[in-house]
Amino acid sequence: MSSKCSEGIKTDDEDEDEGEGIRGMKVVLCVPLIFGGEVHGVLVASKDAMEKAEWSAGFNDADRKLLEQIGKVLAQVAHQRDEAIELEISETCKKVKYMQQLLSVTMQHSENIDNDSTHLLTEAACKMQEMLSSQAADVFLLDQESNQLYSAISEARIPMQEGISGAAFESGEAINVTDTKFDPRFCLEADGFDGVPLVKSLLCVPLFGMTGEAIGVCRFCNKQDTLGHFTNADLMMAESFATVIASAIEKNTLVCQMVEMSRYLQSVLQGISEHIVTLDAQGSLVATNRNTFDAWGIDEETMRSTPYYEWLLPHNPILVQDIEQVLQQGRLLERIDAKFINHSTEEELQYNYTIQPLMTHSAEPSGLLLVVQDVSNEKKVMATLSRYMSSSLVEQVLNTEGGAMLGGTSQQVSVLFSDIRGFTSKSENMDARHVMDFLNRFFQPMVELIEANHGVLDKYIGDALMAVFGVPFASDFDALHSCHCALSMVDRLKELNAAGTLLEGSEVLIGIAINTGTAISGNLGSSRRMEFTVIGDAVNIASRLEGVTKHYGVTIILGEDTQATLPPNEFVTRELDVIRVTGKKRSVRIFELVGYASVQSEEMLENIAAFEAALCLYRSAEFEAALEAFKTLQLKWQDDQPTALFVERCQGFIEEGPGKDWDQTYNMANK
User: Are 333 and 322 in contact (CB under 8 A)?
Assistant: First the structure.
C-alpha cells in the first residue's frame, strides 16, 4: 500500500465565481500508517490551490518521502500504544482472575474449618506472589504470649518491633521500600525470606483484626519486572489482599474456637462424675453425660424420646415433683441426702442434687439444669479425701489395698506445721470479711505447694495449717519432700510480700516445723462427716516445735529424726539445741533448716561452724569459753537470735550454775 496524491478536491466551502475565478480547492497527500504488517491509521496532508494551475504543483516526491517517514514513526507509536493498552487489559484481567482465585481459596477454607491455617495462607500467599510478580511472599501473625511475629507458612519467628516488617506491624501502616540498602530499618534476620539471598525491594502491609488491632503483616520482596520495585498499584492490591486474608483468618479462628469450646464442653460433660441432665421448657432431654444412663438404669433411647416423668416414675416421685416445681416457678432448688431408686436394679442410692432454672438472653424460661452427686459410701470417702490429696492419689487409695488403710494404720510420716507470725495483732484492725479474704489468699498458694511436693493437707487451724508427707503411702523421700515444701513456702511468701498481694504495707512472716515419726492415719468422724487425719506423738511434737521457732527466731525447725533422714550435701542445717517441749518427758534435738547447700555463702557456712563449735563448749559445761565464743560470733552475726540466747544463757549459768540435774536439755516453758 503506497501514498497517493489527489488533486482538485472540492471542499464544502468552495465558492465558484466566474468573475473572481475558482477558490477553496485543496491538494491532499495520504500516507497509510503501517507497522508489523498491520494498518493503524492514515496520515493526511493538504494545501490550498487557489488557481487551477497550482493543482499539479501541490506536492512533490520530496514531500511524499518526508510524509512517509513521518508515517512510519507515527505507525510505530500507534502500535506501541495498542500493545500497552492490550498489556494493561491483560494485566487487569489477570489480577481480577487472581483475586477471584484468592476469594475462592478463602471461601473454601471458611467452609472447611481447620485449626491450622497454614494451608490457607500458603495458597493465598502464592496467589499474591504471582499477582504482584514478587520473588517471594510470606504472612506473619502475632504470637501474644511471646510478643513475636511468626510465619504462618514457614517456621520463622521475629521480634515484633524489629526490621521493616516490625515497623509496619507496630505503626499499622504499609511500607514500600524501593531499595532496602538505603533504609536503616532493614534487618536481614527480621526482613529476610527463606531461599532469597538478597532482598532489594520490600513491601510490608499490616493485617488488622475485627477490633482494629494489628494481628500480623504480609510481606513481598523483589519485584520481578523492569522497574524492580513495587508501585502504588501493587500497594493497593496488597492492602486488598491483607483485608481479605485477615478476615479469613479471624473468621477461621473464631469458628475454630467455637467448635473447640463445644467439643471441650462435651468432653467436660462426659468426664464429670456427677450426673448432669439438661431439660428444655417442655421437660424433654437436651443433653446428659453417659454415666447417667447406667447409674439410673434407664436406656438412652427412652430418655431421649420421652419426657422426664415417664422415665423417673414410679420409682422417684420426689425428684419428679422437684423438677416440675423448678419448671413452673423458675427458682433454684437443692436437696441433700435424697433417696434415688435405680430403674433397672431397684438399688437404693444416696444423692445430693441441685436443680437450676435456665433462661434465654431475654429472661424467658428455657428449661433447667439438674446436677446429681452420688454420695454413697465410696463417694463419701472420695469426696473427703479429695479435699486433702490429689485425685490420682485418691484413686490409688480406693482401687488398691490402700482402701483398707482408711480404717486406720500405723506408719512413719513427716508432719509439717505452719503458722503466721503475729496474726492476732495483724487481724485486729481487719473486719471478718477481710480476715477471711487474707487467709484464703495466703492458704491457696501454700496448699498448692504442699500437693506439688507429694504432701496431703490435713487441716486448717485458724491461721495455721497441718500437712502430712507419707500418707496414705509411705516412701523413703517423705522427709525430703517436706523440706522441699517448707523452703518453697518461704520463697513463695517472699514473692507475695514483694508483690503486696497479701497485706498492703505489712510483711507477712511464717514459722514452720517438721517432725518425723510414727503416727496413726485414717478416717475419723461419723457416718455423716468424716475426715482423713493422722494422730500420735510425732504430730504433737511437730506442733510444739512450730511454737519453738518464735523462741529461737528462725523460720524452719526440724526434729532430729527428720534431719537424720535427709540426703547429705543437699541442705544446710544448723543444730540449735536439745529441748524438752511442754507436756513431753523425752528430749528432742532440734535443727534449723537454713536452705539449699548450693546457694549458701562462705560467710554463712563459717558462722554456722563457729556456732556449733561454741555449742560444743556449752554442752561440755565450759560456760566461760562458750560465752566468749558466742560473743565473738555475735560481733559478726548480730541479727542471729540463737547466738544471743546462748550468750544470755551462758551468763546465767556462770552466775548461778546450771543446776545439779542439768543434762544439756533446755526445758521450754510455753507451747
Answer: yes
Is the overall model pTM greater than 0.90, yes or no? Answer: no
Other Cβ atoms less than 10 A from the Cβ of 365: the count is 16
* Burial profile 604-618: b = 16 or more Cβ within 10 angstroms, e = fewer: eeebbebbeebbebb
Would you list the DSSP string of 86-125? HHHHHHHHHHHHHHHHHHHHHHHHHHS--S--HHHHHHHH
Q: Is the pLDDT of residue 160 over 60?
A: yes
Residue 11: which H helix or E strand, with range?
Answer: strand 4-17
Strand partners, 511: 419
Q: Is the pLDDT of residue 467 over 60?
A: yes
**Beta carbons of 299 and 311 less than 8 angstroms apart:** no
Q: What is the mean pLDDT of residues 446-456?
A: 93
**In a shared domain, residues 589 and 625:** no
DSSP 133-172: TEEEEEEEEEETTTTEEEESSSS-EEETTSHHHHHHHHHT
Q: Is 278 exposed, middle or buried (0-12, 13-18, 19+ CB in 10 A)?
A: middle
Residue with the three cell numbers 544448723: 574
Q: Average pLDDT, whole number, for the chain?
A: 83
Question: Contact 196/222 with Cβ under 8 angstroms?
Answer: yes
The CA distance from 200 to 188, in Å, is: 11
Assess whether 663 and 630 both reside in one domain.
Answer: yes
- pLDDT at residue 502 greater than cutoff 80: yes
Distance of CA 32 to the CA centre of its chain: 76
Q: Of 569, 598, 627, at which residue does a domain stop?
A: 598
3-class SS string, 381-398: HHHHHCCCCCHHHHHHHH
Share of the chain above pLDDT 90, in %: 44
Q: How far apart are CA 541 and CA 549, in angstroms?
A: 13
CA dihedral 179, 182, 188, 192 (to 10 degrees): -10
Nearest to 168 by CA among 248, 238, 231, 119: 238
My answer on whether 574 and 630 are in the same domain is no
Q: Give the domain-ending residue among 598, 615, 640.
A: 598
Phi, psi of 658 (to 5 degrees): -80, -10
Only one residue has cell 517432725, namely: 515
- Rounded Cα distance between 594 and 596, Å, is 7
- Domain carrying residue 529: 404-598
Residue 502: what residue type?
A: L
The answer as to whether 388 is a domain residue is no
Nearest in space to 109 (alpha carbons), one of 249, 240, 219, 258: 249
DSSP 8-state class, residue 227: S
In this predicted structure, the answer to whether residue 247 has a pLDDT above a threshold of 90 is no
Taking residues 598-603, report their average pLDDT. Answer: 95
pLDDT tens digits, one per residue of 325-344 = 999 998 999 998 788 888 88
Amino acid at 351: Y
CATH number at residue 149: 3.30.450.40
For 532-559, how does the pLDDT look when each residue is reduced to its tens digit (9 = 90+)? 788 999 999 999 999 999 999 999 999 9
pLDDT grade for 168, boundaries at 50, 70 and 90: very high
Strand order of the sheet with strand 4-17? 4-17, 21-35, 38-49
